[in-house]
Amino acid sequence: YKPEEIIKDGTLLYKPAHPEDLDHLRDQMTQSIKTSSKMTIEHSIINTDKETNRYYMTANPQPMDNGDVCWNAISMDITERREAEEALEESESKYRALFEGSTLGIIIMNFKSKRFIDANESACQMFGYSTKELLDLNITDLHPEEVMGQVITDVKRQAQNQKTISHSIPCLKKDGSIFYADIAGATTLVD
């Protein structure tokens, strides 16, 4: 719209708003005018190509001497950012579902500290620990002392992508019993 069109009919500001956001947008603007306070809102707009874009807007109402309200506003198109955030959330959700639903025991370890960052339920059941208990441990707590040298060597080789799997490694359960497992490892950056 042209500025003179909006000056003549302020309701044109609402016209491109997505119907689902319209009431909230009106309520926020009304509240902002009543309190003479800054309004910050995220809302969708249907553009001229009938595509829906997401916007972040901050606006300050300024009452005029004649009773009108002048808005000083900045609006940013955040559609790409929102889409990226949604894709990341979906990816994290898929990862979490695979991680938690796996029948294989998965433990994520910080290579430098040898401390565990995360563990799935299958790993907890294998070792007999709760997730909280397991995350308080490190690699030396899950293997008998006499094989620890070989375990550390294998972990280093796996971290350097020189070895992918170690076979029949003795593992210590919480109750002190030993079971044997094939342990696969790979280096991945995790924040």
Q: Strands, helices and their partners?
A:
Layout: H1 3-8, H2 19-35, E1 39-46, E2 52-63, E3 69-77, H3 79-101, E4 107-109, E5 116-119, H4 121-127, H5 131-135, H6 148-159, E6 165-172, E7 178-184
Antiparallel strand pairs: 1-2, 2-3, 4-5, 6-7
Got a strand count? Answer: 7
Structural class call reads alpha+beta
Share of β-strand residues: 25-35%
**Rg over CA atoms:** 29 Å
What does this protein look like?
The structure is a single chain. It contains 6 helices and 7 strands, in the order H-H-E-E-E-H-E-E-H-H-H-E-E. The chain is an alpha+beta fold and 191 residues long. The strands form 3 sheets. A 3-stranded antiparallel sheet has the order 1-2-3. The two termini are 45 Å apart.
Question: What is shown here, in short?
Answer:
The protein is built from 6 helices and 7 strands. It has helices at 3-8, 19-35, 79-101, 121-127, 131-135, 148-159, and strands spanning 39-46, 52-63, 69-77, 107-109, 116-119, 165-172, 178-184. Strand 4 (107-109) and strand 5 (116-119) form a beta hairpin.
